[in-house]
């Protein structure tokens, strides 16, 4: 997440601790007053609290995006609202003065969610799947991804709606085109991955070559072991790509002298909730292979290998700090 980058690490940590206490049912009236005093001390305290509350809502609704789960999701939201009203009983005036509001799952991109759930192939958070298409093409979907395919007629077509895919093209002689919001990709007998990343499409080629054509008609050819990202009107310079980058299709991530912060960003895509990383350990270097289908095991391996300490004040909030002497 990027909307909390400016909030101090300690503020976020304190906000998670306050949330855990108030939701536990063990908070005394004096605790409630201390919490309100803390909120009033600085605007960032309010922002930190709002972030923790929003992540809690997203975690609670994580299995409710499917249309079949809509009523269950709404019922859970009603229950959560009642719990929150109980938790902050007597604090309404203070909350109003501070300008606090409860975030809802409606802040998510509903059109994209609807398109993803109607997609022909899709995965949830932490899920990695493989399919063989009618033309023999091998298709892997990474966590929280969705695609549509059309294999009839003179042109084979794959539409990446969200997330990331790995493709090993089949022997079919018809042209294959992969579409993203930023442009289209035409592989030339190849193995490659495509990731939708905000306003960018990220392409890595492991075999053969792939031609990029942006929406604004810029073109380039990306060859074996090259990668780039592009927007509708711009293609970034080519960079080296490593075979290890596709290890996710085997439910592994290979860390080759990367920052701990970068590894945590990747692991965070495979689980619901939030991982809070102390800036004091963000630049530690990491080597080795870690399981993507078991984030808790991966975090445990990191804790054994690095001078860090991991705790979980809430089921959906994991905190990584420097190890205590």
Describe the structure.
The chain is an alpha+beta fold. The chain has 3 domains: 9-108; 114-245, Jelly Rolls (Sandwich); 251-322, Phage tail protein beta-alpha-beta fold (3-Layer(bab) Sandwich). It has helices spanning 9-24, 29-41, 43-60, 70-87, 92-98, 110-117, 260-268, 295-305, and strands at residues 121-122, 129-132, 138-141, 146-150, 156-162, 164-168, 176-180, 183-197, 200-214, 219-223, 226-231, 234-235, 239-240, 252-259, 274-277, 285-291, 308-314, 317-322. Strands 1, 2, 3, 4, 5, 6, 7, 8, 9, 10, 11, 12 and 13 form a 13-stranded mixed beta sheet that branches. Strands 15-18-17 form a 3-stranded mixed beta sheet. The chain is elongated and about 75 Å long. The protein starts with 8 loop residues before the first helix and ends with a strand.
Task: Please give the structural blueprint.
Blueprint (H helix, E strand, L loop, with lengths): L8 H16 L4 H13 L1 H18 L9 H18 L4 H7 L11 H8 L3 E2 L6 E4 L5 E4 L4 E5 L5 E7 L1 E5 L7 E5 L2 E15 L2 E15 L4 E5 L2 E6 L2 E2 L3 E2 L11 E8 H9 L5 E4 L7 E7 L3 H11 L2 E7 L2 E6 L3
Parallel strand pairs: 5-7, 15-18
Antiparallel strand pairs: 1-4, 2-3, 3-6, 4-5, 6-8, 7-8, 8-9, 9-10, 9-11, 11-12, 11-13, 14-16, 17-18
Helix pairs in contact: 1-3, 2-3
């Amino acid at each position: 997440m990027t909307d909390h980058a400016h909030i101090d690490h300690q503020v976020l940590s304190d906000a998670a601790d306050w949330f855990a206490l108030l939701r536990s049912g063990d908070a005394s009236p004096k605790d409630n007053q201390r919490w309100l005093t803390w909120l009033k001390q600085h605007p960032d305290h309010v922002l930190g609290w709002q972030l923790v509350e929003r992540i809690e809502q997203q975690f609670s609704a994580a299995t409710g995006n499917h249309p079949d789960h809509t009523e269950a999701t709404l019922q859970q939201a009603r229950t959560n609202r009642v719990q929150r009203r109980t938790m902050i009983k007597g604090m309404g005036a203070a909350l109003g003065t501070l300008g606090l509001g409860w975030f809802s799952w409606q802040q998510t991109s509903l059109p994209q969610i609807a398109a993803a759930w109607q997609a022909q192939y899709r995965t949830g958070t932490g899920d990695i799947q493989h399919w063989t298409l009618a033309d023999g093409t091998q298709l892997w979907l990474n966590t929280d991804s969705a695609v549509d395919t059309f294999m009839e007629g003179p042109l084979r077509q794959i539409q990446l709606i969200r997330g990331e895919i790995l493709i090993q093209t089949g022997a079919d002689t018809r042209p294959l085109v992969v579409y993203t919001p930023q442009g289209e990709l035409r592989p030339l007998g190849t193995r490659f991955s495509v990731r939708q990343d905000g306003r960018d499409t990220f392409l890595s080629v492991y075999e053969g070559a792939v031609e990029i054509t942006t929406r604004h008609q810029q073109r380039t050819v990306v060859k074996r072991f090259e990668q780039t990202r592009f927007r509708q009107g711009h293609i970034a310079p080519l960079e080296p790509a490593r075979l290890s980058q596709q290890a996710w299709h085997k439910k592994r991530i290979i860390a080759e002298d990367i920052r701990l912060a970068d590894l945590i960003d990747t692991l965070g895509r495979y689980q619901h909730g939030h991982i809070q990383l102390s800036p004091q350990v963000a630049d530690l270097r990491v080597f080795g292979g870690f399981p993507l289908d078991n984030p808790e095991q991966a975090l445990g391996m990191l804790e054994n290998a690095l001078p860090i300490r991991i705790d979980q004040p809430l089921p959906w909030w994991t905190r990584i700090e420097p190890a205590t002497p």
